[in-house]
Structures are given as structure tokens and as C-alpha cells.
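hiii, so i know i said id send this last week but things got crazy w the move. better late than never?? heres the sequnce for the chain we talked about at the cafe, plus the structure i predicted for it. fair warning i was half asleep when i ran it
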Amino acid sequence: MIEKKGLLIVISGPSGAGKGTVCTEIVSKKSNIKLSISATTRSPREGEVEGVNYFFKTKSEFEEMVNKGEFLEHAKIYDNYYGTPLKAISDELEKGRDIILEIEMQGAMQIKKAYPDAVFIFMLPPSLEELKNRITGRGTETEEQIKKRFSSAFNEIKLVSDYDYFIFNNTVEQSVEDIHNIINAEKCKVSRYKEEVIKKFELEEKEC
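okay and structure toks below
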């Protein structure tokens, strides 16, 4: 058999599309898929745990990591910094594990330049009305923050053309299934394993 490499799966979408819930469900169902933990300067939301949901950093701590080149990508979103620690990603991919990275579009495009082999998936809400309901229903943001996020949503959705795949998050179960199907398809792509496939049968031919 051919040893399959670990995939870096980048999932983006407008705030409120349900990315976090879907990603958590995917990881809970597949032992070989791990969720990347980002660093951020934003304050923890209720129930969020350091080292589980995010690595919470001060602005100065985050900037020091940037200067040391410790991020695969980093971006400023809604007045806060977010970044993906590079070493943790590299170590898991080398072990053959798949990594899901839930990030905003700005950071995703940095990764596309630095790591073009990644799989890019854009998660869409069923409608803008439903998106607004989800953002409002969180109860974690001020009215001004809600308006800011919703007004940005349509412009963010236009960036779907920069991704490899899109899914509509109508239900968590269907979204999880759609992403699993995308991962399975990517792992059967000839372009990823053509050298390994040919080498396997060249060796077998010599033994026949």
C-alpha cells in the first residue's frame, strides 16, 4: 500500500457560518484528523480554554512571535491578531496526520502562497438572513460589533472563488459528511501520489 501524506485542510467562511462547530465535530469523529490551535490577541469567550480553543496572547507576545518567524500565517481581523504556529503544523503533517485549520480569508491566502498543496474549503451559510440570526444569537458581541461583522459578510463571501471547494452549512451532520468526502477525494488525487503509484508497480514488476 502507499503511505498517504497528511493533508492541511483550510476552512474559511464569514463569521457566523458555523465553522467552529463543524470542525470540532469532524475531529471528534476521526482520530487521524487534528484541529490546529491558533494564537490570538482577542479576549477569551465564555467556555474557551487556553491551549484548547486558542493560545491567548498579549499584543506584545504576538508581535514577538511574528518577528521570530513562528507563524505559518498571521492576520489582523476585527482589531485583533490571529496566527497559526508553524512548528505544530509541520510536526503533525510529518506524522501523516491531517490538520484542519479554521482561519479567516486573509490568513488563508497567505497559506495558499506558502503551502499550495493545502486543500481550501469555503463554508457558506444557507442565507444572509440565517447568518445574521447566528451572529446575533451568540450573545457575545455588542450591537456595533454585530453590525460590523454582518456588513463585512457579503464582501467575504465574494472570496469563495479563491477556494478549491465550497459547502453550504445547512446542518452540522451534512457539512461534516461533505468535508469528509472532500478529504477522501483529495487523498485519491493522482497529482498527489503519481510518483508513489508508479514506483510501487515498478517494484512489483521486478518481483513478478
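btw Residues 22 and 173 are 8 Å apart (CA to CA). thought thatd interest u
miss u guys!!
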